[in-house]
Amino acid sequence: MMHAPKIVLQLPVTNLDLLEPFVERCLRDGVDLIAIVGEGASKMDDLIDEIVVGDGSDESRFVVTSFHENETVEEVLEFARNWKKDQFGQAVELIRL
Predict the structure, then answer these.
(1) Is 40 a member of any domain?
(2) Packing angle between helix 41-53 and helix 19-29, nearest 10 degrees?
(3) Is the pLDDT confidence value at 89 over 70?
(4) Domain tally for the chain?
């Protein structure tokens, strides 16, 4: 099963070893947005960006990330639903790792 085009990643991540395979799958599935919600979201955003960029040699590896440390899951789901007007109405998936 493919991921939805928009992902809300709810923290905390219980197993950090799951993060890299999750991000790689998001890239394969063409995910456009990973919005991270919860305490430590800024740091998680940086980790995901590092996985996506890698050594910088593959410019096709791209996904938009955003972090939301002081917002509720519901607020971030709404943000994701409304992100990019041309993608309005696309599915949003809530993920916990």
Answers:
(1) yes
(2) 60
(3) no
(4) 1
Alpha helices (H) in the chain, listed in sequence order: 19-29, 41-53, 73-82
pLDDT single digits (tens) 27-72:
999 999 999 999 999 999 999 999 999 888 998 999 999 999 999 9
Residue 59 lies in a domain: yes
Bridge partners for 80 per DSSP: none
Q: pTM, whole model, 2 decimals?
A: 0.93
φ, ψ of residue 45 in degrees (nearest 5): -60, -45
Residue range of the domain that includes 64: 6-96
Cis peptide before 5 (omega within 30 of 0): no
Residue 1 belongs to a domain: no
Q: Catalogue the long-range contacts made by 15-21 (C-beta closer than 8 Å, 24 or more residues apart).
A: 15/97, 18/97, 19/44, 19/47, 19/48, 19/51, 19/97, 20/51
